[in-house]
Amino acid sequence: MLRSLGSGTLRSLCIRRNRSLPRAFSSATRYLEPPAADRVPDRVPLRKQLKQEAKALRSHKRQRKETAEASKEEWELTVGVEIHAQLDTETKLFSRASTSTSDVPNSNLALFDLAFPGSQPVFQAAILLPAIRAALALNCEIQPVSRFDRKHYFYQDQPSGYQITQYYEPFARNGYVDLYDYDGIAPEDGERVRINIKQVQLEQDTAKSQEYSPTTQLLDFNRVSHPLIEIITMPQIHTPETAAACVRKLQAIVLSCGAVTTGMELGGLRADVNVSVRRRGEAPGEHQYDGISGLGQRTEIKNLSSFKAVEDAIIAEKNRQIEVLESGGVIEGETRGWAIGSSETRRLRGKEGSVDYRYMPDPDIPPLIIGEDLLSSLKDTLPTAPDALLTLLVGSEFNLPIEDAKPLIELDNGARLEYYHDVVDILRSLQVDQDDKTRASLLRVASNWVLHELGGLVAKHDRAWDTEIVPARSLAHLIDQLQRNLITGPTAKLVLATIFDGDRRPVPQLLEEENLLLRPLSREEYVALAESVIAMNPQMVEQIRSKNQLGKLGWFVGQMMRTGEKGRVEAPKAEQILRELILS
Amino acid sequence: MSLLREAERCVANQYAHNFNAFITPLSRTGSWQDRVREADARREEGNPKSPVDGRLISIKDNICTRELPTTCASKILDKFTSPFNATVVDQLEAAGAIVAGKTNLDEFGMGSNSINSHFGPVRNPRRDSSGEDVSAGGSSGGSAASVAADQCFASIGTDTGGSVRLPAAYTGTVGFKPSYGLISRWGVVAYANSLDTVGIIGKTAGNVRDIFNILNLHDQRDPTSLSIPSRSRIQAAIESPQLASRLNSAPLRIGVPKEYNVSELTSSVRRAWALSLAHLKKQGHTVHSVSLPDTKHALSTYYVLGPAEASSNLAKFDGVRYGSRAEGPDGDGKPDGYLYSNTRGQGFGQEVKRRIVLGTFTLSAGEFDNYFIQAQRVRRLVQQDFNAVFAAKHPLEVEHTDKLIREHDVDVIICPTAPSSPSRLKDLMSKSADKSPLDPYVGDVFTVPASLAGLPAISVPVTVPGEEGAELAGIQVIGQYGDDQLVLKVGEMLEGKSFD
Predict the structure, then answer these.
(1) A111 interfacial to chain B (CB closer than 8 Å)
(2) Cβ proximity of B413 and B481 under 8 Å
(3) pLDDT tens digit string along A439-461?
(4) Pick the catalytic residue: B50, B58, B60, B117?
(5) What is the ipTM of this complex?
(6) Among B160-169, B224-233, B324-333, whose mean pLDDT is lowest?
(7) Residue among B83, B329, B334 whose CB faces A4 most closely
(8) Which of A79, A311, B286, B430 is the most buried (most CB within 10 A)?
């Protein structure tokens, strides 16, 4: 979009701070590696060393847990979360430049994105669709009128010297997110905890900067002004686990409603947390945040890029604050950072040096007016929320275990669940002749095949999910054959792998041509087979008989399946014969 | 005279008389000559593209041009050439006009005398009675001087608080600031977005109107450009029988705001004002005293809002993507040093720094409510003052649609453009202890209210007898929002009048 912007425009920039490694780095690995002086100079057997280290780590963890338990009784932690998520949009927030991230640096830019003098913002209305979807999915009240403000600060990733955001009048307010036990909240939060969402606002992303040399930064402005939503929760979280669960849940919600395409692992989502502690049973703290009063002085930890980092950073910051307070110190309202793998947060900016962002209503951008018609059509097309899906899947109809239902919903951005439904639909039509009980069990069997058998193959071969790897119709036919006992379990797995490898023959044809259909063995054939494996392992038979080691029966079943004709030995029948021969 | 002859004479004047009106003059020869020849041919065939086909129009150097640098008279942009043309530049070129060079100004439009320029002060082509150089007014002083000195046919400036009207008054030209939002600001380097308008300076109100009619179009690249439906509403209001008659048969009701009769008015300006009113009375129009009670707060309101927006707009100048950059690491080298302090410290002039600091202060968390919010409230009061005295209702404020016109109110307001004649340059440039850098702000006292209210206003020159011969003064006509054509017409009735 900008012809004159050649490579010469991308200049290096010397930045303001002298770079020094954060202190946290040096102590990050202290539990894994004893200090140099304590180390035996050479020839410690590796295995022994690893064992010692693992032991030290375990004892550290145990100690940490004990300390945490003790401090939990005395101190109350309060956490609020802010999430920044990149909206799934074609264009930037205020220009028609593309949001594509795969292009060469500094190629997707309009004049305004680079803050060229005389250029002006033009709000791209289409970006509202994902933004409103996210806000609705978070149960927010969408504001009929909202406005844009400028947040001022100087940094090389911010071309205009300010970020356009919605500080005074955000487009969505007063939402909430419900966290359940299965979301991984702390046990003391019980089955469910509701975290209120103060507001959701639209804002611009910044440029990407990359350190080239200690005094030089390379800048890629492609990301500048990519539309973001910032989700701000109330400070209502009281454990690190629940805070991490909250971030995970917020990500799942914005992904599942189609507002966002990439999560934390790809940098599409970042979290800030604010943390304060107060002593239980003492007079309420003096601080008030977002209308919640009686809190202690809080600090903010910026730019956390994984759920683990959220949890670990909060634990570390809580411990730091408690330590400061217990030794008679005072918590400063400051911004802190967290490096992955470290054990303590690191001060970034103090209160004295804190930035006054000088928020000012943007004089160029008109108010954002969202009509009722747009809202109602978005409400009608909003996909079912993850919690509602989960309720459905674990409910009486599907009856899936929660540990299967969750990945089905979360995997591949909902595509896995859609695939599962396809398989189930086809399977139901194939099994119309079966009784109700068999048909009811299909749902669970199908989930098992979709998640574990097919999922295992996908993971093992490191393939990206694609519904065409194994067409839903093929998997449904395979399960149908298995349910009707026309093939054995091992055969079904073998056929699945064949299809996974690209065999596109219809399943019935494939089974026919490969001669895989089950021709059941007669009782006599089973007995002969069992006797032959028993004869070869008399001492094991003795162990089963004398010590009642029934687990070893399974080993004999395996032997029968291996020595028998491929695809014809059915495990349950084999075991039954073995029990007869060995135990009676 | 052929257009080519006229254009070549203008360019010769650019090089012959150095009023420092131009930062980048037009080259003596170039492809522009062919374009003017073609315009001459079209004129001969009776088929010109527009009334400005083949005319040289100079452009204030805070308006982007692809062919010539755009410096904003700032060191921080001293070698900057924009990759795009402002909409107004494209519109003028499409109408056959030639960009006559880039005119000097107060850095980023901040000043009332065009002396705050990295490229040196503009000199008024007129001197005072002692032959001393005087201010050309600001911030579009180069534009006004270039018109007054016949270095172009007309000029495009910008008016944020009077920056087109004041230089017009000081140089004896016509300066017009249209209603906010009529002319596109795409490509105009923002000083204070909510106040910035593109203005036109010409020899006559007729020339100005010709150019205004070319530029008065919606532009989707400017989010503050008035939408087409809003333009239709204004048009419908103006064409209603009650309002349409003002431009034809009916005598005008002329308002004289009593709050503008301040002690700072010099006697010649007061005389010019009174004689102008008397002249209009003689034509059959009626003169009425009106009150604009919040006028006294307008200037301070302007100097809160303007710098606040400026401090924000100018944050983009960091030397990273364009513009000049200081040598070496930027900042003071200390871990907590301020980013870009070298580039911005060296690149901006004193007045720009003053306003950035002022604006940064009024936007800071502790002061925002007391200054910025309060100033926005006063701005609203100033707008209401005007709405209370104009007979025509504000066409975009819908609540009272019963009738468009009220009895006993006025059609236009007439007042001086500036309280006094231009100061001597040497007085302005000297640094004496009894002078405050805020003194020149008073020069904007009559122009700022119309800017705060977004109203159309024109300054036209009249002359009156003074103690030392004829003295020049600018008379300002202010109209209701959207009443731009009426303002131009009343300006035309007064322009160039010499009263005895």
Answers:
(1) yes
(2) no
(3) 888 889 999 999 999 999 998 99
(4) B60
(5) 0.95
(6) B324-333
(7) B83
(8) A79
pLDDT digits (tens, 9 = 90+) for B249-286: 789 999 999 999 988 899 999 999 999 999 999 999 99
> What is the structure's pLDDT at A409?
86
Q: Which residues of B touch A120 (CB under 8 A)?
A: 185-186, 221-224
How confident is the model over B153-167, as pLDDT tens digits?
A: 999 999 999 999 999
Q: What angle do CA B293, A360, A134 make, to 5 degrees?
A: 130
> How big is the A-B interface in CB pairs under 8 Å?
130
Determine the residue among A2, A5, A16, A164 to mutate to test chain B binding: the one whose Cβ has the most chain B Cβ atoms within 10 Å: A16
Instruction: Nearest chain A residue to B191 by CA: give it.
Output: A118
Helix (H, G, I), strand (E, B) or coil at B126: coil
The pLDDT value recorded for residue B37 is 97
**Residue B135 structure tokens:** 């201010």
Task: Give A42-56 pLDDT, tens digit per residue.
Answer: 566 677 777 887 888
Indicate if B139 belongs to the active site: yes
What are the sequence ranges of the domains in chain A? 61-361, 384-513, 523-583
**A509 and chain B: CB distance < 8 Å anywhere?**
no
Token pair, residue B120, equals: 């040196």
Yes or no, beta carbons of A4 and B365 under 8 Å apart: no
The one-letter amino acid code at A274 reads N
- Report whether B141 contacts B185 (CB < 8 A): no
> What is the rounded CA–CA span in Å between residue B404 and residue B398?
10
Contacts of A122 in chain B (CB under 8 A): 220-221, 223
B363–A119: do the CB atoms touch at under 8 Å?
no
The SS3 assignment for A301 reads strand
Residue A92 in tokens: 């930037």
Partner-chain residue, chosen from B185, B322, B338, that has the shortest CB–CB distance to A120:
B185
Among candidate residues A320, A347, A350, A344, the one with its CA nearest the CA of residue A336: A347
A121: contact with B, CB 8 A cutoff:
yes
**Dist CA B352 CA A160 (whole Å):** 17
Q: Are B167 and B141 in contact (CB under 8 A)?
A: yes
Q: Which residues in chain A have their CB less than 8 angstroms from residue B79's CB? A: none
- Which residues of chain A have a CB within 8 Å of the CB of B70? 117-118
Report d(CA B84, CA B66) in Å as an integer: 5
**Rounded-to-integer distance, Cα B71 and Cα B328, Å:** 23
Sheet strands side by side (includes B56-60): B22-25, B98-103, B56-60, B154-159, B197-202, B174-177, B457-466, B469-479, B412-416, B253-257, B286-290
Residue B186 to residue A119, Cβ atoms within 8 A:
yes
- Asked whether the predicted pLDDT for residue A26 surpasses 50, the reply is no
Strand B98-103 to strand B56-60: parallel, antiparallel, or no bridges (unpaired)?
parallel
Q: What is the distance of C-alpha B393 from the center of its chain?
A: 25
- Say whether A159 and B84 touch across the interface (CB within 8 A): no
- d(CA A482, CA A571) in angstroms, rounded, equals 13
Whether A160 sits inside 8 A of B315 (CB atoms) is: yes
Is the peptide bond preceding residue B139 cis, with omega within 30 degrees of 0? yes
**Contact A13/B at CB under 8 A:** yes
User: Residue A278: phi, psi to the nearest 5?
Assistant: -145, 150
B408 contact partners, CB below 8 Å, separation of at least 6: none
The strand ranges marked E within A104-237 are 141-142, 145-146, 149-152, 162-165, 172-180, 192-204, 208-213, 216-220, 227-233
Q: What is the pLDDT of residue A3?
A: 39
Of B58, B82, B112, B139, catalytic: B139
* Inter-chain residue contact B339 with A156, CB threshold 8 Å: yes
Contacts of A65 (CB under 8 A, 6+ apart): none
The yes-or-no verdict on residue A296 having pLDDT over 80 is: yes
Angle, vertex CA A517, rays to CA A513 and CA A522, nearest 5: 140
